[in-house]
Amino acid sequence: MQNKDLNLLKLLVILNEERQTILAAKRMNLSQPTISIMLKKLRDQFDDPLFIRDKNNLTPTIKCENILATLPALLTQLDKLYSDNTQWDISQLNGDLNLLISPPLIPTLGSQLIKKLTLLAPELTVQCSHWAGDTPQRLENNPHQHFGITYLPMETNKTLLEQEIGGDEFAFVVSNEHPLQQASIENVLLYPLAICLIPGGITGPSKAEQLIRNLKIKKKINLRTSDISLMTNLLKESNYVGVMPRTLQALMQPYFRFLSIPHEIVPQSYQRKIALFCHQTNRNQPLTEWLIKEAKEILNSI
């Protein structure tokens, strides 16, 4: 194979994942005619059609499947090699860095991550926003210095990299003056219930509501909100019982009590996973790897 081009090999992988040249073009930020030219070069170099059109999709040939079996690991090693040979200095970061973070994670993970970023990269401006329903699309359309952090499961497509960085338990939360002392199902049912909502997740009832419904408990959810300030004010001023992530526990003490949710509702040691998202073009980039490493360390320390 002469005139080897790393991007041509990447195209093979992406075409196999997307099965349409127009989707591959969008993912590689190239025009569809450019993708067609690149595919022709690949066909000439390998002396094989590589992909056969089947209605609206492309199907790999046997030779293409054999090539694809070796490519992902090879491309990952090559990306790592180039990254390792590049002298990256976080202090040289500048411009805007967009962080889109699930609201419950902003006061804890978000604040610590931003504190360290701005300390190490003083010329960088961090723009922090709430993760919302349109965040995956924003990350797809803005590959440069746009990153998101939220709870799983999250509906995205293959354009985005999803990297797990930790997990979080959820608990019942009440004010210190609340009469609830033991979080049994029977006791919790006596009070209005507020659910901490995770924006942009799988549509339908929250995970907590699903678990309550599975037990066929007739309990109305009185409030769903992603606004942490609203929830804390409500819990402080009333007998509401909240369902909130434990990552907020240290921040909310000593004014609130966190009570473990009974194992009949939530299995013991159950955690909702947390992931970092970004455009696939940022895979193995030094900034991406730094954010993943720091986010993991922060979550482990909370």
Automatic annotation (TrEMBL):
A family per Pfam: HTH_1
Name of this protein: LysR family transcriptional regulator
InterPro entries assigned to the protein according to its UniProt record, in alphabetical order: LysR-type_TF (IPR050389), LysR_HTH_N (IPR000847), LysR_subst-bd (IPR005119), WH-like_DNA-bd_sf (IPR036388), WH_DNA-bd_sf (IPR036390)
One of the record's GO molecular function terms: DNA binding
Keywords: DNA-binding, Transcription, Transcription regulation
Annotated ranges, domain HTH lysR-type: 1-61
SUPFAM superfamilies: Periplasmic binding protein-like II, Winged helix' DNA-binding domain
Assigned protein family: Belongs to the LysR transcriptional regulatory family.
Domain of life: Bacteria
